[in-house]
């Protein structure tokens, strides 16, 4: 018996939806596809979640907290110096994007495709960055006059983009960001460009 079949119906539907979003993205998800993959009838989905959209929102909310947890915890490691905590943060952030590619892209669907920045992801991401900034006392920027918030936008953007499309740069640089060693080397280099060691 698989783990999923042992789950209560509500959790089985939710896990199946998360898996489908991660593998196929948002566009191809239908209630019929979810019910078939979960081994339940459509009425069960409506009973537990009221609608496909409510189910998808719940799936994205669940995964959002899970994806933010590991990077956030890496910043709380008081046994490490600030630079090592920052490196661990970026590695955890990149790992989340690689492990959950469809989910990561789903968070960006509304802002990218519909120009809608009033989403739970956008609010949570901005709160997350503010929390991050408050935890980075002791980090020094290479350009002492730099605006820390703008520097963070640059570094976050440079870290997130390659994991959203990990093989985009294969033809240009032979770089496949699915490789953990390349992600680490990239993060080390990226942080060395912006932060004092």
Describe this structure in words.
The chain is mainly α and 197 residues long. It has helices at residues 3-6, 9-24, 31-38, 42-49, 52-75, 82-99, 101-114, 120-135, 148-164, 170-173, 180-194. Helix 9 (148-164) runs antiparallel to helix 11 (180-194). The longest helix is centred in the first third of the chain and has 24 residues, at 52-75. The chain is elongated. The termini are far apart.
Average pLDDT over all residues: 88
Order of helices and strands: HHHHHHHHHHH
CATH architecture classification of the largest domain: Orthogonal Bundle
Low-confidence stretches: none
Tally the beta strands. 0
Q: Enumerate how many helices there are, as a single number.
A: 11
| End-to-end gap | 51 Å
Descriptive labels:
197 residues; mainly alpha; Arc Repressor Mutant, subunit A; Tetracycline Repressor, domain 2; 0% strand; elongated
Write the layout of secondary structure elements.
Blueprint: H1 3-6, H2 9-24, H3 31-38, H4 42-49, H5 52-75, H6 82-99, H7 101-114, H8 120-135, H9 148-164, H10 170-173, H11 180-194
Helix pairs in contact: 2-3, 2-5, 2-7, 5-6, 5-8, 6-9, 6-11, 9-11
Summarize the structure.
The protein has helices at 3-6, 9-24, 31-38, 42-49, 52-75, 82-99, 101-114, 120-135, 148-164, 170-173, 180-194.
């Amino acid at each position: 018996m698989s783990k999923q079949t042992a789950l209560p119906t509500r959790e089985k539907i939710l896990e199946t939806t998360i898996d489908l979003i991660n593998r196929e993205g948002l566009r191809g998800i239908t209630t019929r596809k979810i019910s078939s993959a979960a081994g339940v009838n459509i009425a069960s989905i409506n009973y537990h979640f009221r609608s496909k959209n409510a189910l998808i929102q719940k799936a994205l909310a669940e995964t959002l907290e899970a994806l933010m947890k590991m990077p956030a915890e890496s910043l709380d490691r008081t046994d490490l110096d600030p630079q090592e905590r920052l490196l661990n943060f970026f590695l955890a952030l990149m790992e989340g994007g690689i492990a959950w590619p469809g989910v990561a892209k789903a968070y960006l669907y509304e802002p990218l495709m519909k120009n809608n920045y009033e989403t739970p992801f956008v609010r949570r991401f901005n709160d997350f960055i503010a929390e991050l900034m408050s935890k980075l006392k002791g980090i020094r920027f290479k350009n002492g006059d730099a605006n820390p918030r703008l520097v963070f936008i640059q570094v976050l953007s440079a870290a997130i983009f390659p994991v959203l499309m990990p093989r985009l740069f294969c033809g240009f640089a032979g770089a496949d960001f699915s490789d953990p060693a390349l992600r680490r080397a990239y993060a080390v280099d990226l942080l060395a460009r912006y932060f004092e060691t």
